[in-house]
Amino acid sequence: MRVYVLKRLIEIVPTVLAITFVVFVMMRSIPGDPVVALLGDGYTEEDAVRVRAEYGLDKPLIVQYGIWLAKLARGDWGRSILSGRPVLQDVVIRLPVTIELIVLSMGVALAISIPAAIIGALRQNTWADYTATTVAMIGVSIPEFFIGVLLLLVFSIGLGGLLPSSGWVYLPGTCPSMVCGVSIWGNMQHVLMPAFALGVARAALLTRILRASMLEVVRTEYVTTARAKGLSERPVVLKHALKNALIPTVTVMGLQVGFLIGGAIVVETLFAMPGLGTFGIDAIIARDYQQVQGFALITAIAFVVINLLVDLTYTFLDPRIRYA
Amino acid sequence: MGSRSLFWSRLVVLAALVLVFASVSVADAQTPKRGGTLRVAYGNEISGLDFHTTPGYEMIWVATNVGCGLVTLGPDGKFFPDAAESWQISSDGLLYTFKLRKNVLFHDGTKLDAAAVKFNIDKIMDPNYGSSVRPFYQAVHSVEILDPSTVQIRLKHPYAFMMHMLAAYRMGLVFYSPAALQKYSAEDRKAGKPEAEASCGPFKLVEWVKGNQLVMDRFDKYFEPGVPYLDRVIIRTIKDPVTQMAAFKAGEVDFIVDFSADHVDTLKGQNPSAQILTGKEATPMVAMMKVTVPADGKPKSKERKPHPIFGDVKIRKAIGCYGIDRKEIVKIAFKGKATPWAGMIPPGTEDTADVTSACPYDPAKAKALLAEVGYGPQKPLTFEILTNTDKAIFNVIATVIKEQLARIGVNTNIRLVDKVTWLNGPVAGDAPFDMYIEDLAALLVVDQNLYLSATTAAWNSARHTDTKVDEFYARYASELDPAKRKAIAKDFQEFSVDKLYWNTISGSPFYEIAQPWMKGFVYQAEFKVRYRTVWLDK
Lengths: 324, 538
Hints:
The structure holds 2 protein chains of 2 kinds. Chain A is globular. Chain A is built from 12 helices and no strands. The termini of chain A are close together. By secondary structure, chain A is mainly α. Chain B is 32% helix and 20% strand. Chain B has a 7-stranded mixed sheet, with helices on one face. In chain B, a hairpin with a 5-residue loop joins strand 4 and strand 5. Chain B is globular, with a radius of gyration of 26 Å. The model of chain B is unreliable at 18-27 (pLDDT under 50). Classes of the chains: A mainly alpha, B alpha+beta. At the A-B interface, helix 2, helix 3, helix 5, helix 7 and helix 11 of A face helix 6, strand 8, strand 10, helix 7 and helix 13 of B.
């Protein structure tokens, strides 16, 4: 097991580097660079040449990537070309917001999908099953921003500001600056709508997968044996059936992290949250190469590490699984 | 006295008391209250905070509160003292002498004196400093210190807009403490390090956490006694207009700067007591046509040849003048909240002239002009309209123009690119395009458009090569008589609409939305967003 984990951790390095290289090349392949925006209406060709040289943008692509890697090896993630702010500092400030959003949206997804899937599987072809399946279909079909706008209209405008529409209140001890709103209750109020908007689509997908998996598992012999032993329905379903049915669901959950980061861009923009999603999209739009690299790096690491954790979770869900 | 008359006399006394108290409370409501935090929403992120180099309105709206300059501009276009208490202009227009206030302090505690003024202007004019406002100082010859509180700016030639430039070209001249300017780098200023942002405005920067908020607090040693009233201003970015409306309705923000024109009616419906602030449009919405292309195929080459379509003035006039129904565009895209306009200078700019009548919507005339140059049903004209993702309204306008041109047998394809691609390509990069839709910079005076439309301007995106345009600008900027200047501006705009190097569709309205309890704010369009006299009545 230890060897397996070590091997996987080592594998992370080339994977992440490959991702950052692809992003590096792609960003420089699309039209435009940040220099024109940086110079504004005071732009002159001479200034543009000077600024490109200053930021090393006139060097060959592979040299630019090499410089970025060398700096990264020293812990220097670079500075934003446009704002001059250190990229690592901004990533560290914004990461907790996005982590909280993603964790809670996954929580929302599980809180909806597990009961819906169990009901759907145990009461197959009844109105309860049809309802769960239909709601799942609707959830998959509605994009995050639409759910977000609906939530805004209902809870922020319609119900007289029941929930805050935008911004962020930090959890105690996480304020990254001098002036912050800090409160657990305030934080919950701010994260509720974004987490729900992001989680509903995931809930729909997980419900469908878990329901199909549960349908298969509840018909297996060990579940019949558990019932024959006189176990009540609750431990049969929750301990024997659900635990085994969760394996494909957990796999999908790991893969969904990538979609959650993508969804976070939309949801954070809509709810004006100071997270990594808005950081990433602003960087891409402005062609702020250093920030884009920082965003690609952190999301690649997050994706790979979470999928490693997912693989390790299998051993807990099914003790027969062993990693050599 | 009977009980009846007693009742009436008591009623009169009571009414008088009510009136007295009511007048007291009205007077109270008019007396500015000190304290409170103003919560502001911007629609776009602040790109950086170096007041001398960073572009973007969002930065300017911070600079006009953290910074101070020599003079400032009032809503009526008049100049007011800022750090300079008075000024004199020599009769030949070459010497500008400013007497400084004696009590102006920078946020780092150092004093603003003549040496600090000279230090700042010299820095801006230094090509190695990389200031983006350096082109505005072309007329400046030198800055001389006459005594610690008197400074003189000598010009190379008369420049009628020297005061405008100092007061409000972009954010106008903004001073940094020389000590801070020497101690901290441009990167520190860009990144909004509070110590590096030591200027002399009514608010001092406390922090800027990009993507989260910008906080500025009252500067207690501000030179003007009694102001500002607010303790603190917090600026957040809320990009989506629906979220802006929700935040406003819920009372989470007090003030929205640059609110989307097509959502104004909805917001008004939701918040009948909201203050909707707008004025004459100072920004032009254009359907720019490319006039020349590089003869040797190399972008920005000085060797030019006419654009294959819009190099011909007849086609420019057929499409830009007679083929576009400006009134319909305003009705559909702006819901009537803009002024149809054909002149190169927008309706809210000083010395503008309405030459829209020179470009009436006339499909028959457009068709006839196209036929003259060989386009018609047998050989339909086809070109591309470029828009960008910065504002949704650009796409609406492009779609309306496409539909209008289809009526005269012209086919168009719409291509959507992002803002940076547009900036790098058609605007600064001389990349090929036929027509693009954009609202360009807000113009206080005609002279400001020089940086976008003179033949030598880097942002002359039409790439016209007519030096008569440059001559108009030069004559206009050197004419010190306002009446004669106005006449030159009129001639220039008539010339421009005839040649159509610059094709304006309409003005582009600017909206600011304030809660009913926000008092003392003075609307000055995009040019100044100042919280110096703002107070909260709650």
